[in-house]
Write a structure and sequence with these properties.
Blueprint: H1 2-31, E1 35-37, H2 40-64, H3 79-92, H4 95-118, H5 127-147, E2 161-164, E3 171-172, H6 181-188
Parallel strand pairs: 1-2
Antiparallel strand pairs: 2-3
Helix pairs in contact: 2-3, 2-5, 3-4, 4-5
């Protein structure tokens, strides 16, 4: 009987250990990387740089591959998610998150592109169509990164930006006039 109790205890401890690792991994995925900025203005400048790089990369990619785009190979190329990963890594310095998010954005791009293609909106004979499609895809990706879409509870890059409160030293995702939300609320009371 004592052996059975020990065996049950070992199995229970093993299961708890697995669940704790799973919870830790889920928290890490949910929270994502954190990039410390001096203030909100500095974070906006950095996020705008990401937006410009993504716009440049996507526009060049779409226009450069426009004639192959009708074949369906356009969305299967690994260069695009790798380029997105590189841009995101330069912002966060988190390789795993950047890789995963680059492919999430790539899936978004494929969805937008294939929806427009299936709806017959894309004219593969018209070079101006490439400009229109590039603008639509860039807007969709940048909305996902900067403005949020409700699926992520906000914009992806917003979740990465944190600030240190000048009063209490707390790391927070909101800072105005040098102080975090809690300190701001204390001042207004």
């Amino acid at each position: 009987m004592e052996g059975l109790v020990k065996c049950s205890r070992v199995l229970y401890d093993n299961e708890i250990s697995k669940k704790m690792k799973e919870i830790t991994n889920l928290k890490k995925q949910l929270n994502g990387p954190k990039v410390l900025f001096k203030d909100m203005d500095e974070s906006w400048v950095a996020r705008e740089e990401v937006a410009k790089e993504i716009e440049k990369t996507l526009t060049e990619y779409i226009k450069g591959n426009w004639h192959e785009s009708n074949s369906g190979l356009f969305c299967e190329d690994v260069d695009l998610p790798d380029s997105l990963e590189h841009i995101l890594f330069n912002f966060t310095k988190d390789k795993e998150w950047s890789y995963k998010t680059g492919y999430i954005l790539h899936d978004l791009i494929k969805t937008i592109y294939n929806s427009l293609k299936d709806a017959g909106i894309i004219d593969f004979e018209d070079e101006d169509s490439a400009n229109l499609i590039a603008a639509i895809i860039v807007k969709g990706v940048n909305n996902h990164l900067h403005e949020g879409d409700g699926l992520w509870g906000g914009a992806i890059l917003d979740n990465c930006c944190v600030f240190k409160c000048d009063d209490c030293g707390k790391i927070d995702n909101w800072k105005e006039d040098g102080i975090c939300m809690e300190c701001h609320e204390k001042e207004t009371l």
